[in-house]
Amino acid sequence: MHTTHSLSRVRVSRSIDTGKGEILSPLRSPSRPAPVLTRHSSLLACLLSLALLAGCAPLVPPSAPERQVAGSLGDAACQGDIMPLLPGFEKVENPTLLIEALGQPGEGKLCRGEVWRAIEVEVSVYRLQDEGGEKSFGRWWAFAPPEGTKAAYREHYDICETWGNSLTQAAVCRLPKGAVVVVGPGQSAKCDAKKTLPASSTNQVFIPQETLGKLKDCKIGRLNWF
Fold first, then answer.
1. What pLDDT does 69 receive?
2. How far is CA 164 from CA 138, 146, 191, 200, in A?
3. Are 142 and 205 in contact (CB under 8 A)?
4. For a 10 Å CB count at each end of the chain, is N or C smaller?
5. Rounded CA gap, 108 and 215, in Å?
6. What is the DSSP letter of 110?
């Protein structure tokens, strides 16, 4: 936060700021003649003025370079936290991927997120989609297998019914070592003029397009909801 200091608060000869770009100095008493400025006194006055101005300048420490490991959009409306780092992953910097995964309120995507890279194990990821979705996987997945009712799943993962995803086919794949993903709770999703799914505390996994073709040992099956 930058702090703005007003020169009118510095008590120098009780000057008055008119607010029109003018500084009015008080009139001198007629009984006291104006002092004659010598070369040395003029220099001293200049130095004093510079010192006072320097004292009014806000002290802004140099900003450290921001590490783009984590970020958020519309943070005040976010629900829940980013899940703890799983074994076999490390946090990495990838600001481009992070920005791609984050969404403004109403856009869906992630409300806040961290960039992770798989370094040791091949972790399973899960996705629900339409029949035939295995021909072109989407980018939104989860570390947890699906459970509960279809309506609850839509609420947890911010999936609007108007988007056309019937959630009738389940896919489970393994992330390859070296895969970079973004993890975090979901942003709110505006489905239509009457319905908006609120931001969710359930964490999702955003897998970039170039990684989808490298998913391993994918299994596809029809999901029968109850």
1. 55
2. 13, 18, 11, 20
3. yes
4. N
5. 24
6. B
Q: What residues does each domain of the chain span?
A: 7-56, 70-222
d(CA 98, CA 43): 55
**CA–CA distance, 54 with 15 (Å, rounded to integer):** 18
Lowest mean pLDDT among 20-29, 77-86, 183-192: 20-29
Rounded-to-integer distance, Cα 57 and Cα 41, Å:
25
Residue 129 and residue 155: Cα distance in Å, rounded? Answer: 15
pLDDT digits (tens, 9 = 90+) for 182-226: 999 999 999 999 999 999 999 999 999 999 999 999 999 988 775
Structural contact between residues 83 and 142, judged by C-beta atoms closer than 8 angstroms:
no
Percentage with pLDDT > 70 across the chain: 64
Query: 128: buried, middle or exposed (CB in 10 Å: 19+, 13-18, 0-12)?
Result: buried
The amino acid present at 51, given as its one-letter code, is: A
Please check whether residue 102 is in contact with residue 144, taking contact to mean a CB–CB distance below 8 angstroms.
Answer: no
The per-residue pLDDT for range 96-127, each reduced to its tens digit, is 999 999 999 999 999 999 999 999 889 999 99
Which tokens hold the place of 34? 């104006």
Q: Indicate the Cα dihedral angle 186, 192, 194, 197, nearest 10°.
A: -10
DSSP 141: E
